[in-house]
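Fold this sequence, please.
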Amino acid sequence: MSIQAEIHAAAGGFSIHAELNAPTGSCTAIVGPNGAGKTTLIHALAGLIPLRQGKVVLAGQVVDDSAQGIHLPPDRRPIALHSQHNLLFPHLSVVDNVAFGPRCSGLGTRLARQQAEGWLHKLGLADLAHLRPAQLSGGQAQRVGLARAAACQPEVLLLDESLASLDAETRTDVRHLLADIQATRVLITHDPVETRVLADQLLVMEGGEIVQAGTPEAVAADPRTPWTAGLLDINLLAGHAAGTEVALDCGLSLTTATPMTGPVLVTFSPAAVTLSTAQPHTSARNTWESEVARIQPEGDRVRVLLGAPAPCHVWVTPQAASELGLSAGSRCWAALKATELTVRDA
């Protein structure tokens, strides 16, 4: 394992308790709502926050051990940390910013600049090498920061929303580059595409703890919290099953194709729900009337957020939204087939 960590730490009155184990060369994506503790976890790995309890081993080196009184500072850890703030040196050129890490690692000026130029070329920044950070756009500065972190050739690369300021095309290119980096990567992201493209394992943090862990495919197949389901574009409702009938906590009852008993989680795709302005007469076993809470146009489709009795979101085409006259506060009927529901033990 390149990373073995059990972390009890606190920052600004907020505490976290998390375990993280990552094989050498792997990529771990950490996701969760704002305030979940993701950055605190990254900063604890980097040594910016001391542990209250626990132990951190990076690339075979014990860098934190509360029982033994070990706490190595960030510059003595085999890591590079990049955040969306970049923190470029304003008085240095782009190439000298990127060469700073290799020089600190002991490389001579000429070799460090060659290494820096190589990374600038990979990130499409070769023609900006002579500029100062103040002359860069936000996206360019983000890529320079990434180049500086990668040029250090760390054993562990910590990335805190490192692609957040990039446009869609550049983000795609940088994802491919990050996938080829040999370092063990830990990535904080809010982008489900990044979790699918880059991550070997996915950690979901809420309230300072890891609430779900597994491969992106495993987590997508069985989201355990509403936030996780939302990230993966899945509806999740909790309830109590008795055979094929599920009494949802929100008050609605649904018929499923899978008999279960006891507390359950019910998931279904937003595309599985059909909306109409009148009570439908179809083969769908589940129908209910609801109020539209919000309409969100998103490219070639429209997200319709429904309120009580079953808060969920539904995908429709712009044409269907117009024909149905959907708007915030309007009423509509939802229909959902029993076979479209997935039911699992809570």
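The chain has a mean pLDDT of 92. The domain at 3-231 is CATH 3.40.50.300 (Rossmann fold).
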